[in-house]
Structures are given as structure tokens and as C-alpha cells.
Amino acid sequence: xNTITIYTTNTCPYCTxxxxxxxxxxxxxxxxxxxxxxxxxxxxxxxxxxxxxxxxNINGNWVLGFDPQAILTFANQGSY
Length: 80
Description:
By secondary structure, the protein is of the alpha+beta class. The protein contains 3 helices and 4 strands; from the N terminus they run E-H-E-H-E-E-H.
């Protein structure tokens, strides 16, 4: 079972691509919009040192940006 959280903003086209990709792969996720949640934005910066989105946490591993290969690699590790 995968634990996936994606951090997004309202205006990020790569966030939309990443969510569409997760949906197409049948991977469920929790979305946190950092534009609407400043506390989550600060926590994200503290954790990863990055402000850009999307940032995706998959089973404790960070994927910065929309990287389908990395998403599948970490998601497949969690499905054993």
C-alpha cells in the first residue's frame, strides 16, 4: 500500500500533469495545496529545502517536479 502526498498550487501545470499521471496509474493520493495552506508551505520548505511544486512524497521518498519514472519507482517499492 502506497502513501502518496502531492503538494500543489492552483496555477501549476506540472501539478495537473502529475495528478493526471497518478490517476492514470490508479495510485490514490492526498493533495495539499500550499497556496491555500501557508503552514503546509513552510513545512514543505523546511523538509525539502524547495519551494517549487509539484513535490510528491511517496512512501517517505521525495520526488521534486513531475518525474513519471521516479513516481513509478517509489510507488512500485511500496506495493510489495
